[in-house]
User: Which sequence fits this backbone?
C-alpha cells in the first residue's frame, strides 16, 4: 500500500532530508529543523507525514497548529471569525518551543502541543520529541512571515519548503475539510473564500524566502 503523500517526496526532497540527517549525525550544534510551509490547504501536513514515514524513527513532526489560541480565548478577544489568522496563534510560545527543539538539554524529551479539531484548541504535551531524534519537521502557514511575532522562526529552521499546489484544487480541498469537521457546505465555502483565502494571500509572498518550492502537481 502506498503511503499518503509518498508521490510528493521526490528524489530531490529525499536527498535534502538525507543531507539534513547527515549534518545532524556529523555533530553540529543541536538537531536539525526542517520547515514545511504554504497556504491553508496546500498539503503541508501530507508532505510532513510522508517525510516522517520515509525516515522513521529519526523524524518527528511538530505542527504549528498546536499553538492556536483556544476557541474560548478567541471568542473573548473577538477573533473567532478569523481563526487561523496570524494573531490567533501564540507566536511567542511557538518560537520558544523551536529554540528548545534546536538545543534540548541532554536526554531531554521536549513535549509539543497538538491541535485537536474536535476540541477546537491545542492539547499540551501531546507530541514527544526524544533527545535522540535528529530531525524535527515543523509545518505551518507562517514559518516565513515577518510580522505578528513570527519573525524569529525562519532563523531557527535549517531549511524551509514552500508547498504551492493549484489554487482551485487547494480551495476545494479546504471546503471539503471544513465540511468533514461539521460546517454546512455554504458555511464552509464562505469561510474558505473569506478567511482562509485572506491568509493564503498573506502567505504567498513568503515563497520567495523558501529554499524549495514544491509543486504537488
Assistant:
Amino acid at each position: 500500500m502506498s503511503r499518503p503523500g509518498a508521490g510528493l517526496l521526490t528524489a530531490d526532497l529525499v536527498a535534502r532530508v538525507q543531507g539534513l540527517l547527515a549534518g545532524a549525525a556529523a555533530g553540529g550544534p543541536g538537531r536539525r529543523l526542517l520547515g514545511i510551509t504554504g497556504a491553508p490547504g496546500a498539503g503541508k501536513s501530507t508532505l510532513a507525514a510522508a517525510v516522517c514515514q520515509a525516515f522513521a524513527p529519526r523524524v518527528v513532526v511538530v505542527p504549528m497548529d498546536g499553538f492556536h489560541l483556544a476557541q474560548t480565548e478567541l471568542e473573548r478577544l473577538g477573533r473567532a471569525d478569523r481563526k487561523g489568522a496570524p494573531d490567533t496563534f501564540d507566536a511567542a510560545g511557538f518560537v520558544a518551543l523551536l529554540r528548545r527543539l534546536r538545543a534540548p538539554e541532554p536526554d531531554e524529551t521536549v513535549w509539543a502541543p497538538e491541535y485537536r479539531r474536535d476540541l477546537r484548541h491545542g492539547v499540551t504535551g501531546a507530541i514527544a520529541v526524544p533527545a535522540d531524534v535528529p530531525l524535527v519537521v515543523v509545518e505551518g502557514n507562517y514559518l516565513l512571515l515577518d510580522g505578528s511575532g513570527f519573525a524569529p522562526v525562519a532563523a531557527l529552521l535549517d531549511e524551509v519548503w514552500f508547498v504551492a499546489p493549484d489554487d482551485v484544487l487547494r480551495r476545494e480541498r479546504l471546503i471539503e475539510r471544513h465540511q468533514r469537521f461539521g460546517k454546512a457546505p455554504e458555511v464552509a465555502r464562505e469561510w474558505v473564500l473569506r478567511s482562509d483565502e485572506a491568509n493564503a494571500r498573506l502567505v504567498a509572498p513568503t515563497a520567495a524566502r523558501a529554499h524549495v518550492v514544491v509543486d504537488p502537481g
